[in-house]
């Protein structure tokens, strides 16, 4: 009976996680062809095998880390790479220089300024950021300086947000005559609830690090000068377990977000059973751990 359950759950979860990829493969390829030639900046990925923490850095400081077409394609490749990182536990998303991200690169935007190309860009960014949102890692955005428009949307694609004290986010899309194009509206509703999400989108209000902490958008504030080290330390506290345990915890959360209640419980059982009596469990039992 159990083996039937195990066989059944994997396709359900995988179907949900691959939804964007499988439904729009040709659209994604078309988007990549369109966006790749629109140059400017780049995105780097560093994977620290010792700690299991990866860092993605937006590197377009001279344009306040605006995302060019080329960077959008690089972002998609980086997420693909991270999906295959079996020993990974955590991820930090950050910007270089004094701004987290000023949104879409206005030079790229000018080249794709029509509804068809808008849909292509939006499909690629939805695919990338929703796959980032579903990585089996504990993910955090370090919001240092401004996150504007699409930059604010990026901050919603991780599990947590740590703001430097100069961090600030604003969903300015309305002022630009558009709405969230990178899936940030939906994720913001999941994060803050419909009322607050609608307020932030319609008001285009700047949310400071202090306000972000008060409304539950930020999980911690760190001083500017030690922002990266402090974010690393903050993340380290959450990823002390084996990577199998971390990955399973995150997959429970992903399942609960995407599946029906019954499917999610089946997913949780399926994730639990191989850990029960597994190496981490046996080590803990041998240590006779007391939880005082
Ligand atoms: C689906 C995506 C939808 C969206 O993202 S909508 C939002 C699009 N983003 C924007 O409209 C941001 C516009 N920029 C600004 O508000 C300001 O530049 C910003 C970010 C507050 C920074 O202000 P300052 O610190 O005074 O710096 P600055 O204005 O002199 O900018 C320095 C250089 O960066 C450039 N820059 C800033 N944001 C950019 C962007 N998004 N795309 C392309 N270039 C951008 C800016 O033009 C300037 O370049 P340059 O030095 O004059 O060559």
UniProtKB/TrEMBL annotation:
<keyword id="KW-0963">Cytoplasm</keyword>
<dbReference type="GO" id="GO:0006635">
    <property type="term" value="P:fatty acid beta-oxidation"/>
</dbReference>
<dbReference type="Pfam" id="PF00378">
    <property type="entry name" value="ECH_1"/>
</dbReference>
<dbReference type="InterPro" id="IPR001753">
    <property type="entry name" value="Enoyl-CoA_hydra/iso"/>
</dbReference>
<dbReference type="GO" id="GO:0004492">
    <property type="term" value="F:methyl/ethyl malonyl-CoA decarboxylase activity"/>
</dbReference>
<comment type="function">
    <text>Decarboxylates ethylmalonyl-CoA, a potentially toxic metabolite, to form butyryl-CoA, suggesting it might be involved in metabolite proofreading. Acts preferentially on (S)-ethylmalonyl-CoA but also has some activity on the (R)-isomer. Also has methylmalonyl-CoA decarboxylase activity at lower level.</text>
</comment>
<keyword id="KW-0456">Lyase</keyword>
<protein>
    <recommendedName>
        <fullName>Ethylmalonyl-CoA decarboxylase</fullName>
        <ecNumber>4.1.1.94</ecNumber>
    </recommendedName>
</protein>
<comment type="similarity">
    <text>Belongs to the enoyl-CoA hydratase/isomerase family.</text>
</comment>
<dbReference type="InterPro" id="IPR029045">
    <property type="entry name" value="ClpP/crotonase-like_dom_sf"/>
</dbReference>
<dbReference type="GO" id="GO:0005829">
    <property type="term" value="C:cytosol"/>
</dbReference>
<dbReference type="InterPro" id="IPR018376">
    <property type="entry name" value="Enoyl-CoA_hyd/isom_CS"/>
</dbReference>
